[in-house]
């Protein structure tokens, strides 16, 4: 029973803060009364299919084709070479990583905050194609 409760709490903590470190997770969980070592946490993360990509934790079992499930809300043009994507609070980094993994032609880079992502585009012509790719992935 303790294992299930601990793993449920790990999912909650990682979802709330994908940049958390294993040391911070162990400290938080111990503070909440869970007894574990860092190796136990590593095994739990593996069992939960949580991995680190580009410095943040991602849920590797989440469907990569559906940005809406991960918190994507809307995208709007912000000039010729920029798109601003709005997400649920705390979801921008996960959505940003998935947009990067989509390798959408025309996207030069992404910058994610807490609930906003900036997509830098290589040209004004790329904007329509990027919007189409985002819509089809939602």
Structure description:
- There is one protein chain.
- The protein is of the alpha+beta class and 138 residues long.
- It folds into 2 domains: 2-59, Winged helix-like DNA-binding domain superfamily/Winged helix DNA-binding domain (Arc Repressor Mutant, subunit A, Orthogonal Bundle), CATH 1.10.10.10; 68-137, Gyrase A, domain 2, CATH 3.30.1360.40.
- It has 5 helices and 6 strands.
- The chain has helices at 2-16, 22-31, 38-47, 92-102, 126-137; strands at 50-53, 56-59, 72-77, 82-87, 107-112, 116-121.
- β1 (50-53) and β2 (56-59) form a beta hairpin.
- It is elongated and about 55 Å long.
Brief summary of the model shown:
The protein is an alpha+beta fold and 138 residues long. It has helices at residues 2-16, 22-31, 38-47, 92-102, 126-137, and strands at 50-53, 56-59, 72-77, 82-87, 107-112, 116-121. It has 2 domains: 2-59, Winged helix-like DNA-binding domain superfamily/Winged helix DNA-binding domain (Arc Repressor Mutant, subunit A), CATH 1.10.10.10; 68-137, Gyrase A, domain 2 (2-Layer Sandwich).
């Amino acid at each position: 029973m303790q294992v299930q409760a601990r793993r449920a709490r790990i999912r909650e903590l990682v979802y709330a803060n994908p940049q958390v470190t294993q040391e911070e997770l162990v400290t938080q969980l111990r503070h909440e009364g869970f007894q574990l070592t860092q190796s136990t946490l590593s095994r739990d993360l593996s069992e939960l299919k949580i991995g680190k990509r580009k410095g943040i934790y991602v849920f590797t079992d989440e469907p990569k084709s559906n940005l809406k499930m991960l918190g994507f809300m809307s995208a709007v043009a912000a000039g010729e070479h920029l798109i601003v994507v709005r997400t649920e609070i705390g979801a921008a980094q996960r959505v940003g990583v998935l947009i990067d993994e989509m390798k959408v032609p025309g996207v030069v880079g992404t910058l994610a905050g807490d609930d906003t992502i900036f997509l830098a585009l290589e040209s004004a012509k790329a904007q329509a194609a990027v919007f189409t790719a985002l819509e089809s992935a939602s």
